[in-house]
Inverse folding.
């Protein structure tokens, strides 16, 4: 892909991820449990992992995390998002090598679990509390559910994109 086309493509994916992140931040939680959200911007992350090279997908992810922290003004959430995003990205990039395009939702599930696990570990370090680790099973169940939803949506978008 030519550099200008690639930059434009990546910028559109970043814009889509930012829009989805912002929209999700405006929606009240669907489950009144702290830390559980759908993570719809991860649809773009999964899409980028499967449809661009790893470097572009990683830069899109980092830019989204940084810009959302700036836009929201929540610097502490930056650390949680960064840890979760990077661990999720690394695991999904590895899983992409062993899963086919009909198993993208599985990649998303494992990414969501990695994301929540990293965030709990960061919280445990920042709060200097091991008790928060007991929250991990609840977040793992939510990650399976939300990762399935975002993964199925990403898989659908990818399959439609590949048909055209």
């Amino acid at each position: 892909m030519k550099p200008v086309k690639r930059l434009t493509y990546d910028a559109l994916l970043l814009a889509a991820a930012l829009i989805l992140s912002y929209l999700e931040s405006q929606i009240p939680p669907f489950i009144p449990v702290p830390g559980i959200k759908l993570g719809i911007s991860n649809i773009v992350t999964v899409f980028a992992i499967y449809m661009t090279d790893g470097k572009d997908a990683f830069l899109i992810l980092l830019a989204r995390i940084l810009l959302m922290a700036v836009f929201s003004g929540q610097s502490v959430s930056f650390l949680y998002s960064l840890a979760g995003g990077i661990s999720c990205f690394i695991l999904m990039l590895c899983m992409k090598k062993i899963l086919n395009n009909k198993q993208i939702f599985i990649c998303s599930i494992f990414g969501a679990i990695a994301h929540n696990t990293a965030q709990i570990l960061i919280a445990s370090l920042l709060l200097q509390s091991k008790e928060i680790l007991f929250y991990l099973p609840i977040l793992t169940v939510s990650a399976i559910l939300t990762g399935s939803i975002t993964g199925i949506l990403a898989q659908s978008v990818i399959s439609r994109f590949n048909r055209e």
The radius of gyration is 15 Å. The mean pLDDT is 92. The CA atoms of residues 65 and 81 lie 6 Å apart. The first helix runs from residue 3 to 26.
